[in-house]
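Budget justification, computational time. The allocation requested in the original proposal was used primarily to generate structure tokens for proteins on the priority list. As evidence of use, we reproduce two of the resulting records. The first is shown immediately below.
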Amino acid sequence: MPRQIRLNAFMMNCVAHLAPGQWTAPDDGSADYLDPAYWVGIARTLEAGLFDGLFLGDVIGVYDVFGNAPDAALRTAAQVPMNDPAVLIPLMAHATRHLGFGLTTSVAYEAPYLLARRFTTLDHLSGGRIAWNIVTSYLQSGARSLGDDALLAHDARYERADEFMEVCYRLWEGSWEDGARLRDRERGIYADPARIHAIRHEGAHFRSEGVFQCEPSPQRTPLLFQAGGSARGTRFAARHAECIFLGAPTRNGLRSSARAIRQALVDAGRAPDSARLFAMLTVIVDSTAERAQARYAACRERASHEGALALLSGWTGIDLARYRPDDTLAYVDTDAGQSALASFSKLDPDKVWTVRDATEFAAIGGRGAVVVGDAAQVADELQAIVDDTGIDGFNLAWVESPRTFEDVVRYLVPELQRRGAYKTRYETGTLREKLLGGGARLSAPHVGARFRAAGAD
């Protein structure tokens, strides 16, 4: 019996996410990101293809490390301009019934109470289809824009994030008992105060006291995603995440990352299969291999290397304008995304990456692999990756929008279904139930379940 493959779409509320330059094609719709109909159309396409979710990335700040200025990012629309992704979710949730929505939100610039309130609201409005992709931020420009001199050091950001999560768990799990909401019209009592509790937290970074404003949503705590690939980020993911993004550009690197995550889960007291693993991937699929390769060649011609360098410099914290194209990418500790540089310079022992190599690679699909071919060829590769690395599925980035996802639904999904490797209908339940197969809420031994109020199941 073939392993089931999970698919999510990976987007940002912007023109160019992980493929700068592609918006210039006459038939590309990426520049329509300001039009509500653009997002509704994508959501409906993904639901027609039985995607588990649409995950919306986000960053605070602009990519200004390359050349010590934002000019390259601004010229190429490399993740700027970018709008708030949260406001898109009610729009798309209203247009769909099953598709999940993952929202990237940084703990660096939020108060736990306000973030918890926003996610509870979204979980209610979507009927339990919300996930939170937890990030700690990596752009110094974002810190400056919000009035800070600089981000906290890399590992200190994760220490703060651990405490942030504790406050959120107390709010989501510990304030309202199940059954606290009565809705008793005859007596005029909406909620039972005896079953609603004030939380009290005072720690190194946060202080919070009081009753949570929101009644519990279908999932209480949203489904938790995380993508930290550094040593500290991996420990954080093993403690909190139920689904984990992996960004290694080669199968060797992906296998190594998956093994490290599974071991970290065990070290954290969880089962090695207690989290779903998703690899970043870009797919270009067409009716024939020749057509797919021709499209890929056209995309490579349109790709903006300047935009790719702006993104790479921001991800790694290293100004790549100071290097020649054929210089080797050697690992250097920075306070940006440490796993970004490691994914090129450490994870694959069989390849030495130059700046040129990394730029050409990242220009289409960021730090994930690219698979090109007809439906059978792409399905072969996806099944081989899953079988070889032990991951559960893929976060698919777009190159041409909305064509990337339309073609996956038109060509790849039916081929995977024919092989018995992809679902033919949605399961019922919340996003957590659909992806993990258990209940709607956090379950032991997840750390968040420890904060559950007495009487909350």
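The second record produced under the same allocation is shown here.
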Amino acid sequence: MMARSDFRFSYPKRVRYSEIDAQAVVFNARYLDYLDIAMTEYLRAAGVPDPGGAEGLAQFVIARTTIDYKASIRLEEVVDLCVRLVRAGRTSLTFAFEFHGHGKGEDLRALGETVQVHIGADRAPSPLPDDYVALFERYEGRSLRA
């Protein structure tokens, strides 16, 4: 777990009825949806051209995601989806994420990590483009190379 202040980026998300389970809390699989929303908004905020990855731009696939559930998120609650790029490897980017109660400081609900691998036209791992790493380093304000 990182300090909330370690995350430059956060995105507020209100829980909808379709996202809860029979216990009236967010269904566990929806946390991956929340991560997808957070990642898309992070990429947009960082200045990635077309975060959807149109043809001709850098393409990434998710190689691994881990989630640790800490406390329930309930219907109509607003949570802050926090994302931070932790490091840039030769072919991959490692992101940390945390979900917190909105405006509640260190009210941690879930945390985890996702590794995304850059792929070439042949769908095989490919070295990260230097311009992408530079873009993320500018956004994060620090060196990201492992």
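A brief technical remark on that second record: The chain has a mean pLDDT of 92.
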